[in-house]
Amino acid sequence: MDKHLHDLFIKTINTDKKKDLTQYSALNLAYIGDAVFEILVRTFVLMKAKTSVNNLHLLSKDIVKAESQSNMYNILTEHLSEEEAKIIKRGRNAKSHSKAKNASILDYRQATGLEALFGYLYLKGDINRILELFEICINIKEQST
Fold it and tell me: Is 20 assigned a catalytic role?
């Protein structure tokens, strides 16, 4: 992963203040994980493509949509520790009262699982692992296009 992205992301979290992560529901983890994943995608797209903001948005949107995240979920599960696998499944199985506009229920749930994992790792302060998994996700997306 790019050193600049790593250094930028490290500054966003204070790893000295770890909380009991069991206090967060899977949907709470997905809520923060959505933001973490989004900032990683936007940073990645910005560094990769010198283009207009509109095009940056379109490139980002294609990566963060539920269908793409669901594809990432399916392959990423092979790379997870037992602890991470529990979190991603907990996120997938969480009962949400909303659904993505243009996604199947399965895609939406798996995307929620992926976001929960990123939220968990963020709150845990495991930035290196977030970046490892994000790199796998980007490789998955690039191979599918």
Answer: no
